[in-house]
Amino acid sequence: MDRRTFLIGAGSLAASALLWRPGFALADTPKPYDAAMTPPVTGRDDFVKWMVANRGEDPKFLGEKWDRYEALLRNHDVWDAKDGRAFLLTPREDFVRPANLSRAYDHAFLDIGYGVTISGPHAVARMTSSLDVKPGEKVLEIGTGSGYQSAYLSHLTDKVWSIEIIKPLAERTRSTYDELIGKGYGEFKAIASKNADGYYGWAENGPFDKIVVTCGIDHIPPPLLQQLKPGGVMVIPVGPPGAQRVLKVEKTVAADGSITVARSDIFNKVVPFVPFTKLEGDAIQGNHNK
Amino acid sequence: MTAQTSAPGARSRAPIGWEGWDASPRPGPARRPPAAEPARALVPSLALYLGVGLVAGAVIALQICIMRIFSVGSWAHFGSLVVSLAMLAFGLVSAVMCIGKGFFARHWRAVAGTSVVLFAPLLVAANLVAQQVPFNAIFLLSDPNQKWRLAANFALYLVPFLAGALFLGTVFLKADRFFARVYFADLVGAGLGGLLFLGTLFLLPPENLVVTPIVLALAGGLCWFSAAAPPDAARASALRADLGLLAVGVLAVAAHFVLPPALGLNTLAVSDYKGVSYARKFPDSHLVYRDYSPFGDIAVYGSSYLHFAPGLSDNAAFNLPQVPENAYLGLYIDGEGPSGIMRSLKPEETAYFRFLPMVYPYLIAKSPDTFVIQFGGGISTDVALRDGSKSVTVAESNPAILKAFRTDPVLKSFTGDVLNDPRVRVVDYDGRLFLAGHPESYDVVDLSLADSAGLSAPGGFAIVEKYGYTRQAMETYMRALKPGGILSVTLWNKEEPPKSVLKLYGTIAEAARAVEPDAAARGEPRAIETSLFAVSSYLSTATVLYKKGGFTPSEIATLRDHTHAMSFDDIYYPGIPFDAAATDKLLGDYRNAIFSDAPAPAAGKAGAADGAGAAPAAEEVEDDGGPGPTPKVLPSTLMGRLAFHALVYGGWPEVADRYVFDTRALTNDRPYFAAYVKPRDLPNLLDRLEIVQDEWGYLLLWATLGIATVAAASLVVIPLVFGWRTAFSTAPGKGRAILYFACLGLGYIVVEVGLIADYTLALNNATVSASILITSMLVFSGLGSLTADRTLDRARSVLPAILCAIGAILIGYGFFLDRALVLIGTLPYGLRLLICFLTVAPPAYLMGFPMPTAMTWLARLGKEHMFLWAWGINGCFSVVGAAAVPLIATAFGLSTVLTLGGVAYLVAIPAFFAVLLPAAGKRRRGTEGLPLTVQTP
């Protein structure tokens, strides 16, 4: 953590100590979002205090979020500081259904209705890390779903487009964004969303640097490949929820104008699957077969 | 059909035996109802037999009904679970009646009447409640609630079975004097109930199928009340009861139809995760066609949001103006799909066919006579026609699909009436069976993504019998090729580590060796070296070609050029360079991927995250360098090449042994893609089930077995708790006698459930197979039970011979049945049904003997205390056996299931002599007046 972050954090902590009172946590964020806002990663307590002070979130969820963050690091699903920051700033609890609130930061994917799941935090983190989104890049998401993926992306770039095919779900998620924006989560203003058939992409806003496709299809829609910039990357989780592989598609244009599309895995090697029980703390490490 | 779902098999099982049992020995021959108590007697009458038969039919109908509800709402019909449920209900009722025999003997009229009246409301209520708490197999591991939902479904659907079992049990209790006829009525009624239900599948949509068992039970109840009314007040009392029954029944049916819409409840909760649920949510989706029959609930939806181009090359995006829009309808069977139905396209719109993997055979076959093994939504047929086939013979085993395409005007005009294209000839049954039974040969035989919508959850696919993909089926396809003809098989390749595709490669290679005419060369690489070609696309599809007589170098060049143009990956072609150096590392990596405790790999710029807990993570990435713009050959592609190379040039057994998953070829004996985990690895997997949760279909089989085992344990616990005095009394040969009943329980049920899966090979439809099997098993076992009466006195010599014969027949069936069924499958369907019905008869008839013989002898010898054990253990093993069959079948094969059944009957031979040991210190009782205690085991 750099000095500036620390000073901001410490200062706001001091300020919030004066302002904080029970019940305040779920109201508007104490500070409006700005792109420099970075929570401390020096420890659980520091993180929770800072987030309460700056974002006004529930300390219970913040603690769970921190624990999950540590598991993400252990499992190498977060690859650098900007991705870690994006995870820590995204209030996952606002994107799960009330029935699953207690499991918001579990490793598992959760049902959000309409036959759609919110992917587990490890899957989202790993996929987003592999996209390596840089500030200012244009990102298109096919399959808004819960909205969590785009919310996460909005901490990496200010240009996110998201398309959802199921109308009531698109509307529900849009209103989630709008409510959160109203509370001070200004970063979600970066997300433009619409209810449409994602197969055709969003040509008027393309081409895109990165595309995330989270809907099942028996082939990669040609319009999406066309709307991907040369050198752009597309990631597509393949397989059922919970056991997905992330297909990575890279588009390169040679000097002669010939286009190559290469499919790969985000790792390009055989990846040991790590049982999540192993990530949930030291106590159950011994659970593993030897 | 699925293995798991293979059987609604349990007959309505009569809890018989306790009628001879009483804690106080009651010597003396005849028990005649005292004249002073006419009200206590039940007299034989046609109405009684009809009543018993109808209620027994209702119970069987209920089983198939619940299977259908599961199929439509979820992904499989969970037949083994349903059979387990029925067995459990009859087991529980038997145990309870054993304990409370006196009570039931006194209050039989009230008990039977109440249970038949309550059948309808209990069924409606249980179904409605169960449909509000559907379980979702996808979340089986990730959501702790799902196992309770599964258990709740199990418990809820048990309730109506309990009512049916209680009715039948009580009638049997009072019908001891003419038991054999009542029992026969029960079996015939149950058998016919199954057939009748098959008929109502044409009339009622799945959500309303509960009406059939209700109507049967109501009719049964009406008969019962007129048969059982006390003679003094016959008319008035029967009338009152009839009215009450009808009133309750009508109210129940009304509740089924009225309550769900009024309260916003589900009548049949179709999972949101099934294909049809998505289609219904598309804003412009509209139902084009729906038809229900025993062949499934078929729905066709139209929407601009449907896009089909299975396995399309990514290069299509830059070489085509556009993939056609609004070109598709989605076909859903029991809510699963979609299979794409293609609009009749203009020639320029079909340009994208060239970018589909199924186009491969047509690159080198010119003007072929083509055989398409499964019509499905028709895409293979369209590709075959567009690519210049002179003729296309297309088979479709589901008559309901053919009916839709032939009769529905919308579908006909949408598809340009493709089935009536002059170049197209339609075979209205399974392509595999057709090719096996006809001498015609073809230039191209195509099996592309059959049975698999691809988008639907793969977990359920794997546990389904896939007879079209077995080694024997592949041999059939290869033999049906003209000289120079090509077999083309395309499968989804969406697994990493690869599983299904490796099984496919092995299956095709084995088949190719088997059809090599020169027997001496079969083991040599040259037998298949030049006749195979394979490509895959990462996380998309894999295609294998087999050419009779081998590919020429120029053909290989053509095919490889296409692979390159499509950016697909070579898996095998004659002469493909292969470097064995990577083998050890690859196999080791894949094994470690599942079974090591190594930390996850770092990728990308790992390790840069600051803060506590960030492990230094850069160490393992050096060798691969993380993601980059130009990936090397991907591990799964390398694995495919390794597998194919070993299959052709030798060494496959060793590679397969070292590979992390089971890659055994599919055979008619083990027609499953499932069971990827090697049995020896199962214990190591227990703490990491989540990494195989894509195999939820397979995991569900284990979950079902777990629940069935717990439930079955209750069958042993209840008698132990309530009848401990008799349960723990010592008797000569008691342990072996218990073993006898365990063998019968296990043997009968595994044969029944296993045969239903077997007979699908010839009948090609799970529901039809189940109905024929159940009817045949019940009717012939019933006849066997009746005949058993005549051999009772010679049981010591006759029954061992019968048990021996059963064992021999079952083990023999295990060896030869699949071959016979392939031949039977080539006959006209009606003849197939008849022959299947009759081939079940020999074992079924003999399997009717052991249970009643033993029960009668227990009674004769005054060992009625053993009835508790007989029912408890028999029921327990039936419940567990039904649930275990799919697991045994997927791991070891269907013949093993039959062999297991046969061995169980052989083990019963020595155990039977323990049954015949005289009770210590008790006088042998006469046979007079003791009912024939009959029971299918």
From TrEMBL, chain A:
GO biological-process terms attached to the record: methylation
Record's GO cellular component terms: cytoplasm
Alphabetized InterPro entries for the sequence: PCMT, SAM-dependent_MTases_sf, TAT_signal
A GO MF label: protein-L-isoaspartate (D-aspartate) O-methyltransferase activity
Cited CDD domains: AdoMet_MTases
Pfam families: PCMT
Record keywords: Cytoplasm, Methyltransferase, S-adenosyl-L-methionine, Signal, Transferase
SUPFAM superfamilies in UniProt: S-adenosyl-L-methionine-dependent methyltransferases
Enzyme Commission number(s): 2.1.1.77
Signal peptide: 1-27
Localization in the cell: Cytoplasm
Similarity comment: family membership: Belongs to the methyltransferase superfamily. L-isoaspartyl/D-aspartyl protein methyltransferase family.
Descriptive protein name: Protein-L-isoaspartate O-methyltransferase
Source organism of the structure: Lichenibacterium minor
